[in-house]
Amino acid sequence: MTSILVRYHEIALKKGNRPYFVELLKRNLVSAVKDLGFKEIRSLPGRLLMLFGEQADEEKIGRRIERVFGVANFSFVERTSLDLEALKSGILEALDGRRFSSFRIDAKRGDKGFPLTSPEINREIGAAVKETTGARVDLKNAECTISIEILPRDAFFGFDKIAGPGGLPVGASGRAVSLISGGIDSPVASYRMMQRGCRLIFVHFHSAPYLDKSSQEKVRELVKLLTRHQFASRLYLVPFGEIQRQIVAAVMRPLRVVLYRRMMMRIAEAIAKKEKASALVTGESLAQVASQTLENLAVIEKAATLSILRPLVGMDKQEIIDQARRIGTFETSCIPDQDCCQLFVPRHPATKARLADVEEAESRLDLAGLIQLGVEKAEVEEFRFPD
Ligand code: ATP
Ligand code: MG
After folding, report:
1. Dihedrals φ, ψ of 43, to 5°?
2. Side-chain-facing half-sphere of 74: CA atoms under 13 Å
3. Is the pLDDT confidence value at 11 over 70?
4. Cα separation of 358 and 335, whole Å?
């Protein structure tokens, strides 16, 4: 029988929000493992206990829980009856074959009816472990920490703590629309916002039929990977080629990229309104490319009224790549594709677009009509994890 003790950081829990936070974390944990023999989840003070059926695949369960935002760390634990001797012999038996020179016991008594206090449990079990293993007690830097939980119906113990991703449970901070391109940056930006508790709706702009569908395939794969953290995602695929064609017809070359970006913001904002999302997310990073100078970022964001979150703005490309590798999106992002930003773009885009010039250029466009075109022609796809 597999049982897991999940710990979360309490610092992040402002008093009033705490029950909501814990409820979301529980719901997300259950979503993550519901197909892996999951039976029950119980709230304990500051932590959660998850119970699974007999033949649960611990490795698989561990990999799923490692991705649930809000989890500080977790341990696989064993259940014994509510009895000190049973606990002692259970622990000694489980320790058989483990080698360590120092240890500490970390007992928590959720059931105050248990005859011994936590320090007393620590002392009793500690003495037995010391005698059997010869290891010394070290409260600061123990090689092995033995966690004990005394609950009303049974007791649990476990050894190693596996690190979780930290952050806040997805949903705790509201909803945002993430502009996802198929490049390296936007999936990392999306990950970072989900880690801060945002539930994301994805929007991708493509230039089919002017270009092929490769960027859409990549984005589907990336959204699939990111859905492992929020369990359900919606992706809007917006045909952008016709909109680009109209921009190109009306606007001088150097300003096109900034105009494309401003149209993306407007369409994403219209989708955000529909989805009741309260911010936009991009993978922009200061000065990484011509469209991301301070001047251009300022002109681009004026096209939207919602706040634009740029979690990568101060990150180096190498840092972003390192994180993309860790979260598993890098390889997909590196597959060559035809990105809409390659369509009709000048060799030397403006690096310091002026708002007055941009607005003058846009006055020749039917902005409302183009936004409507984008929103109406968007195809919507749903993703679920686990499938
Ligand atoms: P990325 O690696 O995310 O593509 P990038 O370094 O290539 O970023 P840009 O192409 O300038 O930078 O794009 C900046 C941001 O604009 C992207 O991170 C993304 O949020 C958004 N964006 C760009 N192209 C698209 C697109 N085709 N669909 C949706 N969003 C896009
Ligand atoms: Mg890009």
Report:
1. -85, 130
2. 26
3. no
4. 33
- In angstroms and rounded to an integer, the radius of gyration of the C-alpha atoms of the chain is 26
Q: Is the CB of 180 under 6 A from ligand 1?
A: yes
Contact 259, 299 (CB under 8 A): no
* pLDDT level of residue 46 (50, 70, 90 thresholds): confident
pLDDT (tens digit, 9 = 90+) per residue, 132-162? Answer: 999 999 999 999 999 999 988 889 999 989 9
- DSSP for 1-61 reads --EEEEE--STT--GGGHHHHHHHHHHHHHHHHTTTTEEEEEEETTEEEEEE-TT--HHHH
Phi-psi region of 280 (alpha: psi -120 to 50; beta: other; left: phi over 0): beta
Q: Is the bond into 209 cis (omega within 30 degrees of 0)?
A: yes
CA–CA separation, 136 and 134 (whole Å)? 7
Q: Note the pTM of the prediction, 2 decimals.
A: 0.93
Measured from the alpha carbon of residue 181, the closest ligand is 1
Higher pLDDT, 323 or 114: 323
Is residue 107 a contact partner of residue 125, using CB atoms and an 8 Å limit? yes
Around ion ligand 2, residues with a beta carbon closer than 5 Å are: 181, 183
CA-CA distance, 376 to 387, in Å (whole number)? 28
Q: Helix H segments across the chain? A: 18-33, 58-65, 84-95, 118-133, 185-195, 214-230, 241-250, 256-274, 294-301, 317-327, 330-334, 355-362, 367-377
Q: Which two tokens stand for residue 2?
A: 């597999």
Quick check: CB of 283 below 6 Å from ligand 1? yes
Distance (Å) from CA 172 to ligand 2 centroid = 29
Q: What span, in angstroms and rounded, lies between the C-alpha atoms of 177 and 181?
A: 13
